[in-house]
């Protein structure tokens, strides 16, 4: 018999499947171009040409037995890790080496490795609502539990006063995510400094270190020159999880890395534990060919201007129609206040206008909906009459 512990996931997944099926059904009935699907965070901009060129060059130029082989270290190729470290040092003035970098199977595996490395079963992790829904599942994978710090819906910056009140001896880590999925908010330097100071104080009070796990798959998707502070510079007990899923449009290739700074408490054990976690969780090592591609494309990013154009078009279009939301500074999501109290009802009503959006309760923040604007520009422009009709229906 299938494990009982998996049954809640199976039931939960049926809602996601229902959304996919609804999208496919609407596309068949009305034509793909008449369906406005803002539900998925799948990049809409192709990977830069350098990525495909690098794949071809590596196959021609490098030893394919080595390129396709197991890595000697479960942390990944030493030269790739050194390239990543030097890249970070150039950008952020840090002083990482290959020893601080563990290549991972995207951010998802990086977060699992980080949690297994830093948090024991029965311990607690805090995350600021709204947050990426998988955090709760990742914590549960390791017998830990995730507690949601309620959202500050005025700014969607982390609610640090409430976080401080929620920290107990059971708390061992706080997950942050900036630029944020689903709000698009970038945590300011002031916020990160305050967070660091509260966590330092609380660590002393509870008698053990509190780690920050900084989930950063959207780091490069920041607009108008907004600064995304590099968290290890403000708080030494920080592990950063990065991914090229969004910044190089490579979500299916499953490639990212963890940064474990040398200043971290118990660094030697932590870095070895993460290396072993990569193995025992079954990832073994990050995909080898794409590790080498990432190193060759270390200075490339996706076409951020395309997302920026979408961001402005969707935000301006919706706010002109009376929808309320904060202007996102990063990532590719808009977190819109549901015009109806029950956002599930709003999502169902939107579907009748061929608009697909995700309810905020999926991000521990009911009353809002997430719209992913990683779609074609035409989808945004063409969706506006449907959003207008939807608002008119709501207002009666
Ligand atoms: N963290 C956040 C906030 C995400 O939005 C996602 C994916 O959408 C992930 C982690 C997982 O990313 P990856 O594809 O690198 O595993």
What structural class do the secondary elements suggest?
alpha/beta
Q: Strand order within the widest sheet? A: 2-8-7-6-5-3-4
The small molecules bound here are: pyridoxal-5'-phosphate
Q: Major sheet, described briefly?
A: 7 strands, mixed
Helix content: 40-55%
Radius of gyration: 21 Å
Question: How would you describe the overall organization of this protein?
Answer:
By secondary structure, the chain is α/β, with parallel strands linked by helices. Helix content is 43%, strand content 14%. It has helices spanning 7-30, 49-61, 64-67, 78-92, 106-118, 134-141, 160-166, 189-206, 267-280, 288-296, 304-320, 343-351, 377-395; strands at 36-37, 101-104, 124-128, 145-149, 171-177, 211-215, 238-243, 256-259, 324-325, 333-337, 355-356, 358-359, 368-372. Helix 2 crosses helix 10 and helix 5 (106-118) packs across helix 6. It is globular, with a radius of gyration of 21 Å. The relative contact order is 0.16. The structure holds pyridoxal-5'-phosphate (PLP). Pyridoxal-5'-phosphate binds at residues 41, 106-108, 132, 177, 181, 215, 217, 243, 245, 251, 256. Pyridoxal-5'-phosphate (PLP) binds next to helix 5.
């Amino acid at each position: 018999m299938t494990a009982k512990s998996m049954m809640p996931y199976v039931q939960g997944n049926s809602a996601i499947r229902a959304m996919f099926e609804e999208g496919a059904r609407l596309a068949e009935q009305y034509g793909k171009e008449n369906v406005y699907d803002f539900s998925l965070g799948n990049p809409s901009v192709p990977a830069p040409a350098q990525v495909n060129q690098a794949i071809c060059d590596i196959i021609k130029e490098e030893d394919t037995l080595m390129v396709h082989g197991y890595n000697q270290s479960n942390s990944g190729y030493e030269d790739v890790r050194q390239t990543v470290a030097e890249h970070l040092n150039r950008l952020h003035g840090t002083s990482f080496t290959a020893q601080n970098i563990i290549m991972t199977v995207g951010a998802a595996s990086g977060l699992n490795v980080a949690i297994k490395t830093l948090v024991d079963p029965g311990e607690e992790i805090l995350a600021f609502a709204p947050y990426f829904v998988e955090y709760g599942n990742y914590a549960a994978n390791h017998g830990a539990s995730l507690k949601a710090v309620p959202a500050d819906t005025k700014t969607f910056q982390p609610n640090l006063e409430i976080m401080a009140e929620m920290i107990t001896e059971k708390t061992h880590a706080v997950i942050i995510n900036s630029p944020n999925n689903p709000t698009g908010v970038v945590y300011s330097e002031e916020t990160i400094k305050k967070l660091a100071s509260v966590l330092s104080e609380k660590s002393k009070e509870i008698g053990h270190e509190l780690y920050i796990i900084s989930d950063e798959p959207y780091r490069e998707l920041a607009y108008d020159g907004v600064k995304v502070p590099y968290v290890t510079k403000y708080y030494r007990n920080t592990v950063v999880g990065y991914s090229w899923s969004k910044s190089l449009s490579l979500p299916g290739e499953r490639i990212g890395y963890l940064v474990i700074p040398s200043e971290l408490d118990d660094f030697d054990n932590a870095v070895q534990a993460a290396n072993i976690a990569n193995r025992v969780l079954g990832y073994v090592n990050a995909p080898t060919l794409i590790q080498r591609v990432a190193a060759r494309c270390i200075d490339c990013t996706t076409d951020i201007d395309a997302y920026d154009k979408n961001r402005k078009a969707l935000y301006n279009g919706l706010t002109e129609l009376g929808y309320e939301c904060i202007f996102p500074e990063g990532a590719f999501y808009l977190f819109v206040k549901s015009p109806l109290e029950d956002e599930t009802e709003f999502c169902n009503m939107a579907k009748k206008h061929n608009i697909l959006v995700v309810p905020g309760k999926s991000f521990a923040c009911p009353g809002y909906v997430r719209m992913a604007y990683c779609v074609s520009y035409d989808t945004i422009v063409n969706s506006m009459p449907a959003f207008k009709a939807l608002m008119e229906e709501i207002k009666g």
